[in-house]
Amino acid sequence: MKKVSVFALVMLMTGAVDGVSNLPSIAIFGSNLIFFFIAAALLFLIPTGLISAELCKQSPGQAGIYLWTKQALGKKAGIIAIWLQWINTMVWFPTCLTTLTATFAYLIDPKLINHPVYLVATSVSTFWVMTILNLKGIHHSSKIASLATTLGMIIPMSLIILLSLAWIIMGKPLALHISSHDLIPPLAHTSSWTSLTAIITAFLGMELATVHVNKVKNAKSIFPKALIYSIILIILTMGLGSLGVALVVPHNEIVLASGTIQAFNALFNGFHLSWLEPILGGMLLFGSLGTMVNWLISPANGLLQAAQDGFLPPFLAKENKYQTPSNMLILQGIVVTLVSSAFFLMPTVNGSYWLLLDLSTELYIMMYILMFIVAFVLLVRAKQIQLIPGKKIGAYLLTTAGLIGCCTAFVVGFFPPSNINVGGTIHYVTLFAGGLMIMVSPLIGLYSYHYLQQKKQLLIATPSTAL
Question: pLDDT band at 257, cuts 50/70/90?
Fold first, then answer.
């Protein structure tokens, strides 16, 4: 078995969650971001990371949301969990892809950013190229992810933090002025709470890399350590990075798909470093590609486990010589191509971007609600809690905090932000609720297929009695 280092795993996990593409969707909420960033970290990121690490420690060699749920509640509940994890990524991919293609457009012709045809065509083409690359398997993927996360996330994040700090020190004009009054936003207003959705969206995916646990040497010690390091790195880079964007770009001017390069453009012009913009743009493009590496292959591996339990046709469970679920990856490409058409349903690119981002988050939040219930069941059964401070009491508090954060985000997700044109609340809620139903409905087909397969096996095992 090939050894994947702690550093490589940290880069794989951090790259799956963290990323400069997340910064605009947090920064667009201005002064609200500080309060809700802290709330999201306490009620979601930290519980998710520590619970995932503990579950890895409790069941080495059997990690991932499907296997955890199957162990706690049975495989019928497991298919719900893994389906929600998988389908949410299919909805999320177009947002990540449009960030990539919008960054490229910003460098060659910024007008292209507002053209859905360009965004969709370029995004879908890029996704298929990444799918072909991922057919090479996890060991190649982890190398790509490590390099891409370093060049396309760690360095740009550090740069935007340092430049925005220098911007403040030199007394340059700020787009955001924060007073003590702003530290606690008006919580009675629904528009304030939409910030929580954006920030939790940026924190999704901590548990994704755990599906690779059986492919890593010394996973019992390496995985929990890598998860904890990743939490610390994500909080520091994403918190300070999003604040840096908010300080230099007025929140009502941020374009979600290209807000990061907008911030760098303002910083580079302010410091007479505009020659760095093409170089930085290339790094951001590479970083976005790296982020997709883990998001492409990890959910596919998770759904593969369900296929092997008879919830999907056998051809979808087929692995190539690199132990990669090749047919599953191709299916993902088809679904993402169809979902990308959502960019033609909203009056603005920002509106389409938010619809997909919100829909993806809502699906994933449903999975996390199930995950925290599963964690509670498994940790009650556990003889000893090994990683969570406070042992079982700490574990119960973390699962409770996670459930509170997830349930709050789920309710808030039905309300569109006031500062994004979504074509009206009724139009948005109709598309949003319809999208949720469409994405969840295939579970009926999965259960029906599994039932028919069991019935068929029963008929084969029970020969008919001759008259």
Answer: low
Q: What single string gives the DSSP state of each residue in 81-150? A: HHHHHHHHHHHHHHHHHHHHHHHHHHHH-GGGGG-HHHHHHHHHHHHHHHHHHHTT-HHHHHHHHHHHHI
Banded model confidence at residue 117, pLDDT cuts 50, 70, 90: confident
Ramachandran region of residue 420, left (φ > 0), alpha (ψ -120 to 50) or beta? beta
Q: State how far the Cα of 272 lies from the Cα of 356, in Å rounded to an integer.
A: 36
CATH class, 6-461 region: mainly alpha
List the chain domain ranges.
Answer: 6-461
pTM: 0.77
Tokens 């598309």 identify what position? 431
Q: Where are the beta strands (DSSP E) in 12-88?
A: none
The Cα-based distances of 9 to 45, 172, 203 in angstroms read 17, 39, 17
Instruction: Let me know how many helices (H) and strands (E) the chain has, helices first.
Output: 18, 0
Q: Which residues of 321-359 are buried (b: 16+ CB within 10 A; e: fewer)?
A: eeebbbbbbebbbebbbebbebbeebebbbbbbbbbbbb
Residues 6+ apart with CB under 8 A from 212: 4, 12, 63, 138, 298, 301
